[in-house]
Amino acid sequence: MRSILGIGVSLAALVITTHSASAAEAEECKVVRMAEPGWNDLAFTTGIANVLFEALGYQPQSSVLGINVIYEGMKNRDVDLFLGYWNPAMVTYFEPYKKDGSVEDVRVNLEGAKYTFAVPTYVWDAGVKDFSDLHKFADKFGKKMYGIEPGSNQLMMDAIADPTLGLAGWQVVESSEAGMLSEVGFEIKEKQFIVFQGWAPHPMNTMYDFKYLTGGDKFYGPNFGAATVTTQVRKGYLQQCPNVGRLLKNLAFDIDFENVGMGYLINDGMKPEEAGLRAITLNKGRLDAWLAGVTTFDGKPGLAAVKETLGL
User: Fold this and answer.
1) In angstroms, rounded to a whole number, what is the distance separating the alpha carbons of residues 91 and 85?
2) Helix (H), strand (E), coil (C) string for 90-145
3) First vs last Cα of the chain: how many Å apart?
4) How far apart are CA 285 and CA 263, in angstroms?
5) What tens digit of pLDDT does each residue of 164-221 get?
6) What angle do CA 291, 295, 298 make, to 5 degrees?
7) pTM (2 decimals)?
8) Is 10 exposed, middle or buried (0-12, 13-18, 19+ CB in 10 A)?
């Protein structure tokens, strides 16, 4: 009886040991390659992911790339994941990769977002309330509209190219999110006309007094470009690195959370990882949902490891 019991215990121990070993992620999964286009909302959420992956024993890498470069990177297996597919604003960028199956959706990580043209409230009061009103004030706008990073303003260019809007000869001034907002702040201070890319979540919605324009459904979708943000990965990544996949399937945010977090970047000058750490520290209750079923890289309980590593 003792021999049988001993054998049973030994087998149980072997099963547990084997299970623990199999729970560890494959070595090729240790480096997690992320990318984002330099938008503060995506810099912030990618910063959150960086902090979590590092605390779980991975080696996260984050690059700032143009949207088209991000998709090519995932297709060519140079980028593993992207937390920032804005639907419908990025539909035209994603469509070829959706069609060939090289990029896959994981989950919607944010609802209630929006993205479309915006003008200061005094410009709206002057009569610019719809896309179709822009051409009437072409001289006041200097036939310019202000976008963000090159490669991220295709929808503005599509609007200019649409003959029904009468915007022939207009140009998109491309710089960066920070550059655009600096120009917006200056023009508002001077009470000048300016039309720019506006979106939520973003602290700009409380920093400046502006209105979103109607009439952009053809380009940005209905309800002022009402949008969702989706996590995407290169083809096969969830199967190759299932523990990373579990975290990505859990990781979700909300507008208020991102507004505050983005403020750490814009107003406090924090780096994305610093902002992510502060947000996690002040909202540690979110870790329970984010880390449900997630382990460290070497297969240990993820929640306990992250709390210990971050001193929570």
Assistant:
1) 8
2) CHHHHHHHHHHCCEEEEEEEEEEEEEEEEEEHHHHHCCCCEHHHHHHHHHHHCCEE
3) 48
4) 20
5) 999 999 999 999 988 999 999 999 999 999 999 999 899 898 889 999 999 999 999 8
6) 155
7) 0.74
8) exposed
243-301, pLDDT tens digit by residue? 999 999 999 999 989 989 999 998 899 999 999 999 999 999 999 999 999 999 999 99
Structure token digits, residue 134 = 């822009």
User: In Å, how far are 117, 183, 288 from 262, measured between CA atoms?
Assistant: 20, 19, 22
pLDDT at 134: 98
Residues contacting 76, CB < 8 A, separation 6+? none
Q: Tell me the C-alpha distance between 29 and 25, whole Å.
A: 6
For the chain, percent of residues with pLDDT exceeding 90: 81
- Judge whether 153 and 179 are in contact, CB under 8 Å: no
Long-range contacts of 23-28 (CB under 8 A, 24+ apart): 23/243, 23/295, 23/299, 24/295, 24/297, 24/298, 24/299, 25/58, 25/241, 25/242, 25/243, 25/244, 25/295, 25/297, 25/298, 25/299, 26/240, 26/241, 28/240, 28/241
Q: Are 92 and 178 in contact (CB under 8 A)?
A: no
